Amino acid sequence: MRIARYRTSDGRIFAGLVEGDAVAPVAEESTAYMADAVRDLIASGADFSPAGPAVPLADVKLLSPVAHPEKIICIGLNYADHIRETGLDTPSKVLAFVKTAHTLTGPYQDVVVPAGTTDQLDWESELAVVMGPDGVFGYTVADDVSARDAQFADGQWFRGKNFDGFCPLGPWIVTADELADPHGLAISARVNGETVQDSTTGEMIFKIPEIIAYLSTYMTLNPGDVIATGTPHGVGMGRRPPLWLKDGDVVECEVEGVGLLRNTVRIK
Q: Cα(35)–Cα(10) distance, rounded to whole angstroms?
């Protein structure tokens, strides 16, 4: 199944089941603070049966497939070729950091960056895991947008990874049963149509079961939690000279069998 979260033309938000070029509503999201229809359906073990007629995807606005996960955990330095391009040391164990829910933005929405806050805006195409009640619920695509100057100026990565909108996610969640092997998928990124990342999830140093097992030693992973599993080589900071995103640039992040993000950078 492909599970989406979307807004209709009248402003209502739904969790829905995507089939072909259409989406059928499963449940309407309430207007309550921190409401998240997809997260709640995952937690309840719902079967995602449609509750109404399907409408064309072209007639709705796809949103981040989860709105308020309890945790967005990102895995750093998890591809050997990416480590080499950064010049950083290879971690001996899973290196995790967090993004908060305010970083989430939709698969086709703009990434808006306040003018004067960074001169080193970068992309990171990633396969992301969405947790269920008893393990992996499914997979989606993430762009771990990063302000490298802020990331490395502070002695820790939080500011550089946590600007508003710095985690485009989507376009939907592909349930785990649809992917026989999440470590055999092509993963890529393009900037203004030019391929900048081109690898496979098989190059991960720490595979998904190992990541989940390690994180579970010190935290409870709850339904709807997102784990971005790391990025391969080809990020802007690894190029000589570095390539930084600028106003109007279009970034596409794609994972085979999962989906495509397309976000435009707006510096205001």
A: 18
Report whether 3 contacts 66 (CB < 8 A): no
The owner of tokens 């081109």 is 198
For 72-267, give the CATH class: alpha beta
Please give the full DSSP string across 73-134, using - where no structure is assigned.
EEEES-BHHHHHHHTPPPPSS-EEEEE-GGGEE-TTS-EEE-TTS-S-EE--EEEEEEEETT
Each residue of 53-62: pLDDT tens digit? 999 999 999 9
pLDDT at 67: 98
CATH of region 2-62: 2.30.30
Q: Whole-model pTM?
A: 0.97
Q: Under 8 Å CB-to-CB from 82, ≥6 apart: which residues? A: 230, 231, 232, 233, 234, 235, 238
DSSP string, 232-264: -S--GGGSSS-----TT-EEEEEETTTEEEEEE
Rounded distance, CA 103 to CA 17, Å? 24
The pLDDT tens digits for 95-140 are 999 999 999 999 999 999 999 999 999 999 999 999 999 999 999 9
CA distance 205 to 18: 32
**Using an 8 Å Cβ cutoff, are 110 and 263 in contact?**
yes
Write down the domain spans for the chain.
2-62, 72-267
